[in-house]
Amino acid sequence: MIPNKTLKLSLKSLREFAKKRLPDETLIDLDARDECPMEIVRFMCSPDKLGIQLLFIPEEFGGMGGGTFDVYCVCEEMARIDLGVATAVLATFLGSDPITVGATAEQKKLWLTRIAEEGLLFAYGATEPEAGSDLGALRTTAERVGENGKVVGYRITGNKQWISNGGVADAYSILANTPGGPSWFIVEKGVKGFTHDEPEDKHGIRLSNTAALALDNVYVDADRLVGGVEGQGLNQAQAVFGYTRLMVAAFGLGAGWAALDRAIPYSTKRIQAGAPLSEKQGYTHKLIVPNVARLEAARAYIEETAERIDAGEGSLNTEGAIAKYMATEAGNLAADASIQALGGYGYTHEYMVEKIKRDVRITTIYEGTSEIMEMTISRDRWQIHLKTRGQHYHAEAQKYEELHARHSNVGADLAAMALHALAEVMEKARAARLTRHQHVLLRLGELIAYAECSASLARRAALAAENKLNEKANKRFDAAALAALSRIFAREAALRAAEDGLRWVIGAGGVGDAEIPALEAILGLPAIHRAQSGLISDLDYVADVLYGRAAKRAELAA
Ligand SMILES: Cc1cc2nc3c(=O)[nH]c(=O)nc-3n(C[C@H](O)[C@H](O)[C@H](O)COP(=O)(O)OP(=O)(O)OC[C@H]3O[C@@H](n4cnc5c(N)ncnc54)[C@H](O)[C@@H]3O)c2cc1C
């Protein structure tokens, strides 16, 4: 882990560098020209310049040994600057992850040291024209090359699609089918038979290079097989999902906030109907505050998951999926609302929010689409539901009822309602075998993500109240504001769990008409409706905090 002081200094240098070298006019120009600014990417990755690479490489290989929490902080900051540049710089970590988790000691030493010392740019080559979400459909092959009965190398043939840094990387991790199963190989640029296409003309992240790769009988020595054992590729890819999905979650968070941080100051200056937009509830309570609540709920989940990975709890794939799902969906909603918040100006290039919206769109697609995240989340929690005979989320809810007894204003009671309702919806789905409908299974994934994030934000608000947040945790909001955000978000999560849950249970034929009123009561729907009381005053309070009016209002009230 990097000391907090060093992390803060690195983030500051990053911000200052971006201010100087990547002002809005430059970003708009590069976006229009569809150009990846390689000089800037190289500068950011060079060990003697910004050296972002060093943050992530273990100290024994010449890096700074950053942990998952450090990675999240850097990814968010990078995304606030530009998601295309962030993708270009951080593709190296994705590309080198198979090495970090699966390589032999010599391979780690060689490649991780080269990344640290030479600022080597990596690309991660998994996706193929026919194998996207389903990597098992992989067609690229790696045939053994033998000498005297010993495997001395491999010949790789196939095509890779949509590879970030595909046209500019120095080295590539390539997933290919060996006789022993899918395996990662390291292939350096320029080897015979290895070519890439022209960069894709993309909707967003136009400052990143994305290209298809072609491998035609490319020879690599046997020591380029990551880990030295065939058939470990999918496991190695799985082993880092918690971590890599957290990186993309931080991208969604950073981009969402980048958009809101343009909309918020804009709305203080834009006068319509005699007053700034920032003073109009119909504006702030629709376009700004709910997006802040969703982003901060996602942040709470990201921060907790990062802390748990750093504490050695394993790769936490499902939690990584929840974090990615919530943060990237919230980032997209926030960027879209920011266009609306700027009206006609928002729809033009000059005001940047439309670029951020195009950029953040990728985060719900790459590193596992939102639908794949819903499936991952739902399948895992479904198993837990079955194993605990339906008690898992009731037991979780109880923890929040206890938390509510200690902190009555952090929304823990509302989070508990969301968790109880979720447990009942899942139980109803089990009894009526509703998950045979894939749509129901995936909708459960969404409800689970909302309920778990509401719990996480309530916990974070309680920690803030006790002054116990980790020193690197984001402190944009104080304890009172976090508590209000938590109450806003948990009301939404509870309503979704009960109302949407009921909708899908009824929609899939899980209950007859006569049973619906009883099910509404079991789900706690009347209580969840009553708990919406106070929502407008919480929205008012958060708007006041965002616009710096809270202290003044408190003074006037006193
Ligand atoms: C700009 C960009 C950069 C990228 N960078 C990289 C990179 O560096 N390395 C890399 O390896 N890949 C990269 N990718 C590829 C990316 O990870 C894939 O595009 C993504 O995983 C989805 O795969 P696909 O495009 O084949 O879509 P598909 O898998 O065909 O999915 C299409 C749609 O169907 C849905 N879907 C798929 N399966 C199911 C299912 N079983 N049930 C229900 N719905 C389903 C998906 O959610 C999606 O909405 C990049 C892509 C882009 C666009």
Verbal overview:
The protein has 558 residues and is α+β, with helices and mostly antiparallel strands. Helix content is 60%, strand content 11%. The chain has helices at 4-21, 24-33, 38-45, 52-56, 68-81, 83-102, 105-118, 233-239, 241-269, 281-310, 317-341, 343-346, 353-360, 370-387, 392-406, 412-431, 438-465, 479-507, 516-522, 525-530, 535-546, 550-557, and strands at 122-125, 141-147, 150-164, 171-178, 181-188, 194-196, 210-221, 271-272, 275-276. The protein has a 4-stranded antiparallel sheet with strand order 2-3-7-6, covered by helices on one side. Strands 1-4-5 form a 3-stranded mixed sheet. A hairpin with a 2-residue loop joins strand 4 (171-178) and strand 5. The chain is globular. Flavin-adenine dinucleotide is lined by residues 91, 124-127, 132-133, 162-164, 202, 205, 210, 362, 365-366, 369, 371-372.
